[in-house]
Design goal:
Number of strands: 11
Structural class: alpha/beta
Strand order of the largest sheet: 1-2-5-8-11
Largest sheet: 5 strands, parallel
Strand content: 25-35%
Number of helices: 2
Shape: globular
Radius of gyration: 22 Å
Distance between the termini: 47 Å
Length: 170
């Protein structure tokens, strides 16, 4: 009987003191407006840093007011990223699941950043796999060590001031 009374009191109190929750409008979530411009890159076989190749493609898409960048796997699927790649608004990156992003830099860098350097919010962007059931890789193995006890972790991402983005296919 005591348990039944406790449940009834809980239900009544919950009904009296509950707050309504307002769900934000759709534009607060990832709701992409993807432009028709499309660029595909396939990494060159002989390079020790592919950061600029990817950054140039992102910048080109931004200048066209947005679109899709597809990053394909090449003969060697490893893209060496030794400089932070800045993702821009309205750029949607689709990565082949065989691609591996790896850094050989002794510096602590994020492979990709969004909103870190821009004065305004970065919006409407995505970084997803070209195959919804398979994923690309960020490889931190065999990375040269930085200064002892100075670099404690490695980050695939550095994000700030974001709205309406997607980092996963599902």
């Amino acid at each position: 009987m005591k348990k039944v009374v406790s449940v009834i009191v809980f239900v009544i109190a919950n009904s009296l003191f509950s707050q309504s929750v307002t769900i934000p409008k759709d534009q607060s979530f990832y709701n992409p407006d993807i432009k028709s411009y499309h660029r595909t890159i396939k990494k060159p076989n002989h390079s020790n840093n592919h950061s600029q190749l990817i950054q140039d493609a992102i910048d080109e898409i931004e200048q066209k007011e947005g679109g899709i960048l597809t990053i394909e796997a090449g003969n060697n699927n490893v893209y060496i990223i030794n400089e932070e790649i800045k993702i821009k608004s309205n750029v949607h990156i689709k990565v082949n699941p065989n691609v591996i992003f790896k850094s050989t830099s002794p510096r602590k860098i994020a492979f990709f950043s969004a909103g870190k350097y821009e004065p305004q919010r970065v919006t409407n962007f995505s970084l997803t796999s070209t195959d919804a059931k398979k994923y690309f890789t960020f490889d931190f193995l065999n990375r040269p060590a930085g200064k002892k006890n100075y670099y404690k972790s490695f980050n695939p991402w550095w994000c700030s001031k974001l709205q309406g983005f997607k980092l996963h296919n599902q």
